[in-house]
Design a protein that fits this description.
This protein is mainly alpha-helical. The protein has a single domain, classed as MetI-like fold (Orthogonal Bundle), CATH 1.10.3720. It contains 14 helices and two strands; from the N terminus they run αααββααααααααααα. The protein has a two-stranded antiparallel ribbon with strand order 1-2. Strand 1 and strand 2 form a beta hairpin. Helix 9 packs antiparallel against helix 11, helix 11 packs parallel to helix 12 and helix 11 runs antiparallel to helix 13.
Length: 343
């Protein structure tokens, strides 16, 4: 083998390695999202840690603990005035719970920083879980339509067209309101933890249940394209079972579109959760989320005394998360797009 051959092979290997490396925007997006996710998840023992009293019955999670005598304290970068300093001194001498001042306190005297981190974990959990539901349903539905072809494919895709014509956010709202009404009629049969769990489960299923339509179309088109390839014709010729065809031959070739759509579906799911929680039909108090934190902070923007940081903090977290995931999704789309990858 000549030196030119070695150079050609090495250049091909280098080009392949470069193709699978993220670009600058992709790395920045991944780093920002990973930082936010780790900060919110790793701080859960602190943000959900019990505080507030000496007895176990009197202790409550830090993100939910309140002290009404210390409500609306300014953040740490703002100096306490005489009245606020007097309130803190009285509460300290009385042995009351003293919330942190990293981002101040809300109208109920709760630590905004602890609620921001705990709410981020809830919002990310709902967003990632809803995106997983959407990807799972869309992949299975699109693969079934593409593999069946013929009349079955036509019927399945007409159902998708009908669902596309319905207002998806309205369906999510109606489902969330219906489940909330059922929970209200149950009264005290369910504890607060069970009610919150059912509420969050309903929210992620509702968001994921209406977000899979685009995924189904994408996967269906990919499956139809792959079915016409020679390696799939060989599988059918030798009698490979449909299940083995899908899991061993089709699914590995669908990883690219699935990864791209998953990266783009997560920010949409997080935004839907924030919108619903802002309206009061998503994550309910006292459990925080970025959406209901924005809703609670909105009345504090008034011409008399504007406490802008209460609204700016959750909005900034939502914006950074969505932008970083969109950067990552665009970069993955560029990497897995065969036309753009050849450039």
């Amino acid at each position: 083998m000549t030196a030119n051959s070695f150079t050609t092979v090495e250049s091909l290997h280098a080009r392949g390695r470069a193709r699978h490396r993220l670009g600058v925007t992709g790395r920045i997006g991944f780093a920002v999202f990973l930082t936010i996710a780790l900060a919110c998840s790793l701080s859960l023992p602190w943000s959900l840690g019990a505080v507030g009293g000496t007895s176990s019955a009197a202790r409550i999670a830090r993100s939910e603990a309140s002290n009404l005598s210390l409500n609306l304290l300014p953040p740490v970068w703002s100096t306490l005035d005489a009245a606020d300093a007097a309130r803190v001194e009285i509460a300290t001498n009385a042995g009351q719970y003293i919330p942190g001042r990293m981002l101040g306190t809300d109208r109920l005297g709760r630590d905004v920083f602890a609620r921001l981190l705990a709410g981020g974990a809830v919002s990310l959990l709902v967003g990632l879980s809803a995106a997983f539901v959407a990807v799972l349903i869309g992949t299975l539905y699109g693969a079934l339509a593409g593999a069946a072809a013929g009349k079955t494919d036509a019927i399945l895709m007409r159902i998708v067209d009908i669902l596309f014509g319905l207002p998806s956010i309205l369906l999510v709202v109606l489902l969330a309101v219906a489940v909330d009404g059922i929970l209200e009629r149950r009264g005290d049969d369910l504890g607060p933890v069970a009610r919150q769990a059912l509420n969050i489960a309903t929210l992620l299923v509702a968001i994921g249940g209406v977000s899979w339509l685009t995924m189904a179309r994408v996967i269906r088109g990919q499956v139809l394209s792959l079915r016409a390839q020679p390696f799939m014709e060989s599988c059918r010729a030798v009698g490979v079972s449909p299940a083995r065809q899908f899991f061993r031959h089709l699914l590995p070739n669908l990883i690219g579109p699935i990864t791209v759509y998953a990266a783009l579906a997560v920010p949409a799911a997080i935004l839907s959760e924030g919108f619903l929680s802002f309206l009061g039909i998503g994550v309910k108090e006292p459990l925080p989320s970025w959406g209901n934190l924005c809703s609670d902070a909105l009345p504090e923007l008034n011409p008399i005394e504007s406490r802008w940081w209460l609204l700016a903090a959750p909005c900034l977290m939502i914006a950074c998360t969505l932008v970083s995931l969109n950067f990552l999704g665009d970069e993955l789309q560029a990497r897995f797009d065969p036309i753009r990858a050849k450039r």
